[in-house]
What does this fold into?
Amino acid sequence: MTKDDLLIIDALQYVNWNRELFEQARAGGLDAIHVTITYWENFAEAEANIAQWARHFAECGDLVMPVREAADIEAARAAGKIGIILGFQNCSPVEDDLRNVERLHGMGVRIMQLSYNNQSLLATGCYEDDDAGITRFGREVIKEMNRVGMLIDMSHSAEKSTLQAIEYSQRPIAITHANPASFHDALRNKSDTVLKALAESDGMLGVSLYPFHLRNGSDCTREEFCQMVYDACDIMGIDRVGIGSDLCQNWGYETLEWMRSGKWTFKPDYGEGSAANADWPRQPDWFRDSRDFINIADGLRETGFSDHEVRKVMGLNWLEFFRDAFVPAAGASS
It folds into this structure.
């Protein structure tokens, strides 16, 4: 099996993009990437980041194109390009105005987390001591995201909030980049209770290659990772698991601190409660960047997945999931 035999979708990357990195991703066979464009930004700042992506599409249009519906991913593959899905890792651009959900959707945003580590106006993040669950405003935003066709992502949210999001949403939600807590007990990883509820509601899990969320960190072996994927599929079913690498590239330390600390604190927040995490982690040797996605596919085959099952995990599951997730409800404007 080669990368040409696969449709590859990565459900999360945070990269300081330039032409060279787009070329790397295309060389790796990527057909679509969900790209993070905000963490702590307000509406105006998010709008500016969306404008930057319009420049990417103009300047690198031979390599990338926007995705507003699942068919655009297939069109990108046919054209030899990467489909780019714009997403938020926090709800801060919504501010306190429910109308902003539709406005942002109209600008091309298709995925949004309800919280990023901390308590938000919508839900509780996974680093908080107390999980209050989905707020009253959060319930309204969930309804509006369901209406316009914006996918709810609970990757950085706490357990009660995540379970309530699954319950309150009338459409399946996703955890685009996290791993089973049974594999590694990082605060960001998810319990079997969450994974089962996600699967039972036809949601999706994107397994992460961010070293802080892997057993043995940067030294996690391909065999360990692929066995984790096998075990996740055993819990959730083969149709409910994909890749969300959480690959971070071409950033300095100051961006890492922005990602973690944003505007809410004046001191560094190292995450997971340890100053040992005071720098970007080293990627595992078998997954250094987007050119190594074929290594995952090879590892999945060695772990016991059939070729068809490998194709599902590497991208077909996300494609089928997005077919409904990005479609506005009846009567909603797009």
The radius of gyration is 18 Å. The mean pLDDT is 95. Residues 208 and 245 are 4 Å apart (CA to CA). Residues 3-325 form a domain with the TIM Barrel fold (CATH 3.20.20.140).
